[in-house]
């Protein structure tokens, strides 16, 4: 996990994220990207593009993604976040903050250029902006019209600039001002282009490094307090700390067919149930609580990382005690018990409260206890979760094991930066085409960034003017971007193969526990264990939470 030591001394960000590196880096790379927001929205399907009032103020993908993520994860009155299994959420948010700092540095330089060469010569600037606004407006709806009519608008503005420079309609100081009123913005455009190109190359290099798997540290200087009175830095540091703590919550939410939010859909279920009887030679069995059996199963599941056969231990086994609340499939937010209550310690429910829920079982309604075993594989691209629930009703012991799979994030997050190209007809063989490389930054992009730059301290106004990116709810940094896990052969094999040792550990723990409590384990297990194990041998994913009933 990315950590930042706040004790006195050099601040050295760690970039290792354990078994979840690939997805963390891929999501972080979105903060440094260029390109249009609409293309990203079409690729991920769940996000939305917010339209602004003026096309010239529209943000690119990196700007919109960073602003949306920082506002959602660090906002003062934000809604709770869904845990992001397989992702270092803090690292992703810190990269968004780092990208914003890089852009703010660029915008400060552009603001100086804009004030000197554009604001002081506002009449000429407005003419040029009108031409570029027309191009941007046409580009949104009609690319061919943008090339034709937008080009004509720029030519008309250029002719007007020449006429004013050669024959201004006034003399004296006013005439001199009119001569240069449309030339000064052109000089400003040249200076702004150099600033924008330098910034774009830096951002693209970070994008390339992150997608390629290189360690790129996110340096967030504004999260390091200069002294005890630096309240802004202290507040930002505290918000990042809260984000970290929230990711460790043990309160989850079950959203019907969507499964456990953050853990994926339920793809398999195995049940073991029978009436409890004393073992032969015993008049009665020793009483126990469901929590006692849960603890025994938990200790056996922890042993999955150890094997007597070389290289066969399962790495990165995580055992968690969850309290799961039911919410509707279409719910747009989640909630947790108040942090100040006796049962809560911040975003986590205290151990005694978890044990109480496991023992009471809340059959009439309320939260349920799940023993979760989680495996993060394929560098975080696949998160497999197996939950165990223990239920005691009318002397019937029921143990259910369910499998959940959270697939890889959409492929757009792994796209690498590409050179801009265009196909044009050959000069002689006009029926054939050739590919030409386009400049990294075109005139429209220079003007767009120069116009947005003076407003960088007012992100709310920029969002109103140019629009932004709408995030799906309930939001989590991982589960809202995922695709299907069952389209990758290796991932399917991992899910199928892991179910057998998990079921075996649950069976062994239950058998051992029943024998210790003078229960007839042979009667309980003789037939059912063979059935369950045969089902495990032929495990296949299916829609467990889809019921064919009215």
TrEMBL record:
This is Uncharacterized protein. Keywords: Membrane, Transmembrane, Transmembrane helix. The chain crosses the membrane at residues 113-134, 146-166, 172-192, 382-406.
């Amino acid at each position: 996990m990315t950590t930042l030591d706040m004790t006195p001394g050099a601040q050295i960000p760690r970039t290792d994220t354990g078994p979840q590196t690939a997805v963390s880096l891929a999501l972080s790379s979105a903060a440094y990207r260029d390109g249009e927001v609409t293309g990203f929205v079409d690729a991920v399907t769940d996000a939305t593009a917010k339209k602004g009032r003026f096309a010239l103020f529209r943000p690119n993908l990196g700007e919109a993604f960073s602003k949306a993520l920082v506002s959602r994860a660090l906002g003062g009155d934000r809604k709770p976040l869904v845990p992001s299994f397989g992702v270092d959420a803090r690292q992703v948010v810190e990269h968004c903050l780092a990208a914003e700092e890089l852009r703010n540095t660029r915008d400060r330089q552009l603001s100086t250029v804009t004030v000197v060469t554009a604001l002081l010569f506002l009449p000429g600037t407005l003419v040029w902006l009108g031409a570029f606004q027309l191009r941007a407006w046409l580009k949104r709806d009609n690319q061919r019209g943008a090339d034709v009519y937008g080009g004509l608008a720029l030519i008309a503005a250029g002719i007007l600039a020449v006429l004013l420079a050669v024959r201004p309609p006034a003399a004296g100081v006013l005439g001199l001002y009119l001569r240069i009123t449309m030339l000064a913005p052109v000089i400003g455009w040249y200076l702004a282009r150099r600033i924008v190109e330098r910034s774009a190359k830096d951002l693209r290099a970070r994008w390339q490094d992150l997608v390629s798997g290189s360690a790129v540290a996110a340096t967030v200087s504004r999260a390091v307090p200069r002294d005890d009175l630096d309240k802004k830095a202290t507040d930002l540091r505290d918000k990042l700390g809260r984000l970290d703590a929230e990711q460790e919550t043990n309160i989850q939410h079950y959203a019907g067919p969507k499964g456990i939010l953050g853990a994926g859909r339920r793809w398999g279920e195995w049940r073991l149930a029978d009436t409890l009887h004393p073992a032969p030679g015993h008049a009665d069995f020793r009483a126990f609580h469901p929590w006692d059996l849960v603890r025994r199963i938990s200790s056996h599941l922890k042993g999955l990382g150890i094997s007597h056969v070389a290289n066969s231990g399962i790495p990165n086994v995580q055992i968690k005690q969850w309290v799961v609340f039911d919410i509707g499939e279409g719910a747009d937010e989640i909630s947790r018990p108040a942090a100040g209550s006796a049962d809560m310690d911040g975003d986590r429910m205290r151990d005694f409260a978890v044990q109480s829920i496991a023992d009471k079982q809340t059959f009439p309604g309320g939260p349920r206890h799940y023993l979760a075993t989680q495996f993060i594989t394929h560098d975080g691209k696949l998160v497999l979760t197996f939950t165990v629930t223990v239920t005691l009703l009318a002397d019937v012991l029921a143990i259910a094991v369910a499998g959940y799979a959270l697939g890889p994030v959409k492929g757009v997050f792994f796209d690498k930066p590409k050179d801009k190209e265009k196909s044009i007809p050959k000069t002689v063989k006009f029926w054939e085409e050739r590919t030409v490389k386009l400049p990294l930054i075109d005139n429209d992009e220079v003007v767009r960034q120069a116009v947005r730059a003076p407003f960088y301290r007012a992100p709310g106004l920029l969002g109103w003017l140019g629009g932004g990116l709408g995030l799906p709810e309930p939001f989590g940094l991982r589960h809202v971007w995922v695709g299907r896990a069952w389209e990758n052969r290796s991932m399917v094999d991992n899910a199928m193969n892991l179910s057998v040792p998990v079921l075996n550990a649950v069976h062994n723990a239950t058998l051992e526990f029943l024998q210790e409590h003078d229960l007839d384990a042979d009667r309980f297990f003789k037939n059912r264990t063979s059935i369950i194990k045969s089902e495990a041998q032929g495990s296949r994913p299916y829609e467990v939470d889809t019921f064919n009933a009215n």
